[in-house]
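CO-FOLDING WORKSHEET

Operator: S.A.
Ligand of interest: zinc ion
Run index: 306
Mode: holo prediction, single chain
Checklist:
[x] sequence pasted
[x] SMILES validated
[ ] output reviewed
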Amino acid sequence: MVGDEAVSDSRYKAFGPKVWKSVYSQANSLLEEAAVTLAPFGGLTANAVAHLRSDWIEWGDEFVKIRVPKQADCNQWKMVGGDSLVSERGRPCRYCKNTGATDGFENLWRDGSGPHRYVATLHRDIAEPAVDVLERVFSVLARSGMYATPASVGEAPRRLLPDCESKYVYPKLLRTGVSLYCYYGLETEDIVDLSPYVKDTVVEIIRATPEVTQKKHNSYSYLRALAEREPASAQELASELGVTPDPVRGTLNRLKNSNRVEVDKTEQPYKWSIIGDWTAPFVCDTCGYQSPTLQGIGSHKRAHDE
Ligand SMILES: [Zn+2]
Ligand SMILES: [Zn+2]
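OUTPUT RECEIVED:
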């Protein structure tokens, strides 16, 4: 499969947040941007990115979801030079023709388990780079699809890395979602929800990527630190907690979604404050269960869904 080659050594290695940021900042074509954002944040294969269509996307206020079907038609159009020129395709792309049981798109994953549905969830704050690309393709350019070939999506990010790193770039980008979500302070269980990997794989990726260390703080330590110095910026809180500002912003946004903190955007940098009693537990609205942390109530609520 394009971009999904099995890698024998360092099978689980992902790019660390620094390398990813450098790759992302160099991306300057639609395909490069789509590959370096939708692979990590959405866990989309090069095949799914290439055949992505507007009717797979659900635009929510907090999340954007991509519902990748088991099967679909191949692209009706293809890009011809530049980001905005397209012409009619006429026949299925080589990838659709040569893989799976049909001449159309089939969502296959490397484990050989056959075509399956997949839902990618993009958090508007944390996965903003991926949401930006989707908005450009489907709102600004008003296209009905990505109209790319899986090979061109798989190849696109290769140029952005030095030669020694340019092998297996796409599978590494797929695993990099784990590294980025980890950097943003998400717990393993949350990362499993947002990635195409099972828990054991997520754990292996974290272990194989030394640039990533999982958070040492939880929502309780964030709220306590904020209570001591509110109103405070993410930067101030980060130096208080001894971490980098990006993951702090991620956690503050999640606390805001739970109505535990509020943000004043009238001045730069934004100032964050506590709402109510910072020591109050997080409560499950289904059964009343209480947990002292956002992470704790998150795993509890997931148990209801199972
Ligand atoms: Zn195709
Ligand atoms: Zn409950």
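REVIEW:
The domain at 17-208 is CATH 1.10.443 (hpI Integrase; Chain A).
The radius of gyration is 20 Å.
[x] output reviewed
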